[in-house]
Specification:
22-stranded antiparallel beta barrel; mainly beta
C-alpha cells in the first residue's frame, strides 16, 4: 500500500510601518517605497464632470517584466505622489470601483527624475458587485459557504477540453469513458453556466469532450446545494462556467492543440460590447482517436467450486470521436435595470468504435474447445440544439432581482452497430465464412422545455428572501431495431430484441429560501416542493404511469469567527430519478457477454445529506475539512445474474430494483499553499463509502469503502515560464462479489508566455508513465469474471493560446498585471 504523508509547516512574519511627511498632497503608500530618487505625481478625475476621485487605487509596475514596484491611493482631492522610483520605464494604472481602469506609461531618468502625468480621467461603468475573495494574487481555489471554485487555467493550464479540466478538479473524477463523479458518486448533476444539462451518461460525456478548455472560466463544486437549485444529483452539483466577458469594443481568443496520438482540438471566441449591446460567441472542434486494448475472461464453477470451463477474451479496438460545439450570447440592456438575453448552444458529434474480440473456449483442464472472433463496428452521431431566452431586472445586485427564462433543448442521437462471428482454427487461421451477423440501429429524439421565474428581495438589512417557480417537460422517443443473418448468406430477419418506447416526464416545482445574518452567524433555511409524473409506454401497448410528490428542505448554519475562518453545518434532501436505461425492460447488450434489463416500476431515490465544514485561509493558502453523511431511501441496486441466458447467449445480466435504504459517509480534506510567487499548489484527500449509480456500466455494487488523493504543484520558473504537475490516485476497493484495482494518472505541463497574458504555448504530457488502466474482478458461486481495459490515454499535447482585448472591470476589481496601453491625452 502506498502512503503519502503531508507535513505543511508555515511561519508567518508580519511587519508594519508607515511614515507620512508633511509635504504637498500625495498618495498614501500601500507599502514601503522602493529606494530611488524618482517620483510620479498627478491627479485622478471623473471624465464626466472633472471632479476628483478620492481613494482611487494606483499601481506602478516595471515595463521590463510587469513586476509590481509601488502603489498607493489618492487623497480626498484626487491627488497622488508616488516616490522612491529608480531610473527606468514604468506603467501606471489607476482604478476605482465604478470606473474603467486607465493605464499610462512614463520614464524616470537621472536628468528628469520627476514625471508629472497631470489629470488622469476615469470613465464611469456599471458595477455588479459579487462575493469574491480578494487577495494580492488570485487564488487557485475560492472557498465560499456553499461551494468551492477552481480557476480552469490554474488547475489545468494546457487542457484540451472541459472534460480535461474536470479531471484536474479536486473531489471530481472522470473515468476513461468520460463519465463524471463527485466523491466517487456518479449521481452528480452537471450544469453549464448554472443551467442543468439535459444530457446524461455517454451523451453528456461526449458533449463535455467537445467544449474547448480555453472557453472554460472556472469549475464550481457544490456538494450540498440549497432548495433553490434542482434537487437532482445526490452527490451535489458541478457547474462548468464558460467565459462570457467581453471588452468595450472587440475582444477575442484562439486556442489550438494537437497530440501525437491522432488528437486535435481548436477553439475560438469573439466578443463585442458597445453601449447597450453585448455579443459573445465561441466555436470549438475536437477530434480524439485512440486505441483500446483489454480482456474479459470467465471461469465457470460447479457447486463445489471446481472449474467447469473457461472463456478467454482478448480485445483490440480503436475509438474515435469528433465534434463541433458553438455557443452564442446576446445581451441587450433595455434600461439601467433591465436586460434581455438570448443564449444559444449547438453541438454536432460523431464517433466510431471498432473492435476485434478474440474468444478462446477451454474445458475444465484448459483444453481447447473452440476459437472465434467477434468483429464489432459501431458508428454514432448526435445533434443537440439548446436555446434560452431570459429577462432580468436588477434593483440591487444579488439582493433585489427578478428574472425569468424559457429554455428549449432538442437532441437527436443515432447509433448503428454491425456484428459478425468469424470462426477460427486453433492456430488462428480462418475456419469458414462469417456467420451470426447482427445489425443494431438506435434512433432517439429527446426534447425538453423549461420555464423558470426567480425573485430575490431583502426583507430587512440582514434578511433576504429568494423564491421561484419552475416547470419542466421532457419527451423521449426511442426506436431500436435488430436484424440477424444467422448463416451469413445475406438473409436478414427481424429479431425479437427490437423494441420501441416513448418516455414523458413533467416536474412542477416551487421554492423559498430565507437567509439571515446574526452577528458572526449566517443562517439559511429553504424548502422546495415538487409534483412530478412520468409515463413509460412500450410499443406493445404496455404503459407504466407513475406520479409522486416530494418536499426538499435545506438548511445552513455558518459561523465566521474571523474573515479567514469559517465553520458550517448544512443539510439538504436530494433526488435521483431513474434513467430510461434503468426503466427499459428490453435487453440492451453493451458487449457480447453483458446485458442490461431495466425495470419500469422503479421508484426515485431520495437522499438526506448532512455536511460539516471547517475552512481556514491565510497568506500562505487555505485548508478545508468537510465530513459528510448521506442516507438514501429506495436506493436502486443492481441485481447481477452471472448464469443468465438472453437471446440464446450465455450472459451476465444486470437488472435493477429498489431496496429499503443505504448509508454513505466520508470526508474531504483539501488544502492550497502559496510560497511566494515561485511556488503554489493544492492537494486533496477523499475518503468515502461509495454510493453506486444504478445505471453505471462499471460499478457492480454500492457497498464499498474507497479513498483517493490528488496533488497539484505549480512552479513559476520565471515571469514567463510555468511548470505544473498533477497526480491522481484511487486505492483498490472491495465491492460486493468483487474488487476494483487501483487507478492512477499523472499530467505534466510546461507553459511559456509569449506576449504577457495575451499569448502562450504549452506542452502537456498526459499519463507519461502509462498507468491509466481499469481492472475489476467480480463473480459469485457460478462464475468469476475479470475485466480489464487500457484506454490509450498516454499522449503529448502541444497547445497554443492567443487572446485579444481584456474584460473591463465591471466586477469587483482584483489587482492584475498592467498591460501596455497608448498614452492618453
Amino acid at each position: 500500500m502506498k502512503r503519502i504523508v503531508f507535513v505543511l509547516l508555515a511561519l508567518v512574519l508580519a511587519a508594519a510601518g508607515s511614515a507620512q511627511a508633511q509635504n504637498p498632497p500625495q498618495a498614501r503608500p500601500s507599502g514601503p517605497p522602493p529606494s530611488g530618487i524618482g517620483e510620479v505625481l498627478g491627479t485622478v478625475v471623473d471624465t464626466a464632470d472633472k471632479a476628483p476621485v478620492a481613494r482611487a487605487s494606483l499601481t506602478v509596475r516595471s515595463k521590463a517584466d510587469s513586476a509590481l514596484v509601488t502603489g498607493g491611493y489618492t487623497t480626498p482631492d484626487g491627488a497622488f505622489r508616488l516616490q522612491g522610483l529608480r531610473p527606468g520605464s514604468y506603467y501606471l494604472r489607476a482604478t476605482s470601483i465604478g470606473f474603467k481602469p486607465r493605464n499610462y506609461t512614463f520614464d524616470i531618468t537621472e536628468a528628469a527624475p520627476r514625471a508629472n502625468v497631470g489629470a488622469i480621467p476615469l470613465t464611469r461603468v456599471a458595477v455588479n458587485l459579487q462575493a469574491v475573495q480578494v487577495a494580492g494574487e488570485r487564488p487557485m481555489v475560492v472557498i465560499e459557504p456553499d461551494r468551492n471554485t477552481y480557476r480552469a487555467k490554474d488547475i489545468a493550464p494546457a487542457a484540451a477540453t472541459a472534460s480535461d479540466v474536470l479531471q484536474a478538479t479536486p473531489s471530481v473524477e472522470v473515468d476513461a469513458d468520460g463519465k463524471v463523479s463527485l466523491r466517487g458518486n456518479e449521481n452528480v448533476a452537471i450544469q453549464i453556466n448554472g443551467r442543468p444539462t439535459p444530457m446524461k451518461g455517454t451523451q453528456l460525456a461526449a458533449y463535455l469532450k467537445q467544449i474547448p478548455a480555453n472557453i472554460v472560466e472556472r469549475i464550481e463544486v457544490v456538494p450540498n446545494p440549497s432548495a433553490k437549485y434542482d434537487p437532482e444529483g445526490m452527490a451535489g452539483i458541478i457547474n462548468v462556467v464558460l467565459k462570457a466577458n467581453t471588452d468595450l469594443g472587440v475582444s477575442g481568443g484562439l486556442n489550438t492543440g494537437f497530440a501525437n496520438a491522432g488528437r486535435f482540438n481548436a477553439g475560438t471566441n469573439l466578443g463585442y460590447q458597445a453601449g447597450k449591446l453585448t455579443l459573445f460567441g465561441t466555436y470549438g472542434f475536437n477530434s480524439d482517436d485512440r486505441g483500446i486494448i483489454g480482456l474479459n475472461n470467465r471461469e465457470r464453477l460447479d457447486p463445489v467450486g471446481s472449474p467447469l470451463s473457461y472463456t478467454n477474451q482478448d480485445i483490440d479496438g480503436r475509438n474515435s470521436n469528433a465534434g463541433h460545439n458553438f455557443t452564442g450570447n446576446v445581451d441587450y440592456k433595455l434600461t439601467d435595470k433591465d436586460v434581455i438575453s438570448n443564449a444559444l448552444s449547438f453541438n454536432r458529434r460523431h464517433a466510431n468504435d471498432g473492435a476485434l474480440a478474440g474468444y478462446t473456449e477451454l474445458d475444465a483442464s484448459q483444453g481447447f474447445l473452440d476459437r472465434y472472433v467477434i468483429d464489432r463496428n459501431n458508428k454514432s452521431t448526435g445533434l443537440m440544439v439548446d436555446e434560452a431566452v431570459s429577462w432580468k431586472r436588477t434593483l440591487v445586485p444579488r439582493k433585489n432581482e427578478l428574472s425569468t427564462e424559457i429554455r428549449f433543448n432538442r437532441a437527436r442521437d443515432k447509433d448503428n452497430t454491425l456484428l459478425w462471428r468469424d470462426p477460427q482454427n486453433q492456430d488462428g487461421t480462418t475456419a469458414g465464412p462469417a456467420v451470426e451477423g447482427e445489425r443494431d440501429s438506435t434512433n432517439a429524439l429527446t426534447r425538453q422545455l423549461t420555464a423558470q421565474l426567480d425573485y430575490t428581495r431583502p426583507l430587512t438589512a440582514k434578511t433576504k428572501l429568494e423564491t421561484g417557480l419552475k416547470e419542466t417537460g421532457r419527451w423521449l422517443d426511442r426506436e431500436f431495431l435488430v436484424a440477424k443473418d444467422a448463416l451469413g448468406d445475406g438473409s436478414w430477419l427481424p429479431s425479437n430484441l427490437s423494441n420501441n418506447f416513448t418516455f414523458d416526464e413533467h416536474v412542477h416545482a416551487g421554492y423559498g429560501v430565507l437567509s439571515q445574518s446574526v452577528g458572526k452567524f449566517d443562517l439559511q433555511g429553504g424548502l422546495r416542493a415538487e409534483w412530478a409524473n412520468r409515463t413509460f409506454d412500450l410499443a406493445n401497448d404496455q404503459s407504466y404511469p407513475y406520479s409522486y410528490h416530494a418536499l426538499f428542505p435545506s438548511g445552513v448554519v455558518m459561523y465566521k469567527p474571523s474573515e479567514q475562518t469559517q465553520i458550517k453545518a448544512s443539510y439538504s434532501r436530494r433526488i435521483r430519478r431513474p434513467g430510461t436505461q434503468e426503466l427499459n425492460p428490453f435487453p440492451v447488450f453493451f458487449d457480447q457477454q453483458n446485458v442490461f434489463i431495466g425495470n419500469p416500476k422503479l421508484n426515485p431515490e431520495y437522499t438526506d445529506a448532512i455536511e460539516l465544514g471547517f475552512s481556514k485561509s491565510g497568506q500562505l493558502g487555505s485548508l478545508q475539512l468537510s465530513p459528510f453523511y448521506r442516507r438514501t431511501k429506495d436506493v436502486v441496486r443492481v441485481n447481477i445474474n452471472t448464469a443468465d441466458t438472453v437471446d440464446g447467449r450465455e450472459v451476465t445480466s444486470i437488472s435493477f430494483e429498489n431496496l429499503d435504504n443505504a448509508n454513505s459517509w466520508g470526508t474531504d480534506l483539501n488544502g492550497s499553499l502559496r510560497l511566494g510567487p515561485k511556488f503554489s499548489g493544492f492537494g486533496g484527500l477523499n475518503v468515502f463509502k461509495m454510493v453506486t449509480d444504478g445505471g453505471s456500466q462499471s460499478a457492480l455494487s454500492s457497498n464499498a469503502i474507497g479513498w483517493s488523493y490528488r496533488l497539484n504543484v505549480t512552479s513559476q520558473v520565471n515571469p514567463t515560464v510555468t511548470l505544473q504537475a498533477n497526480y491522481w490516485y484511487r486505492a483498490p476497493m472491495n465491492i460486493e462479489k468483487g474488487r476494483f484495482s487501483a487507478m492512477q494518472m499523472t499530467n505534466i505541463t510546461l507553459r511559456k508566455k509569449l506576449d504577457g497574458d495575451n499569448m502562450s504555448v504549452a506542452v502537456r504530457f498526459t499519463d507519461p508513465f502509462d498507468t491509466m488502466k481499469f481492472r475489476i474482478k467480480a463473480g459469485d458461486d457460478n462464475l468469476t469474471q475479470i475485466t480489464a481495459r487500457k484506454f490509450g490515454v498516454r499522449s503529448t499535447w502541444v497547445t497554443f493560446q492567443w487572446n485579444y482585448g481584456q474584460a473591463p472591470k465591471i466586477r469587483p476589481p482584483r489587482e492584475e498585471p498592467a498591460q501596455p496601453a497608448p498614452v492618453f491625452p
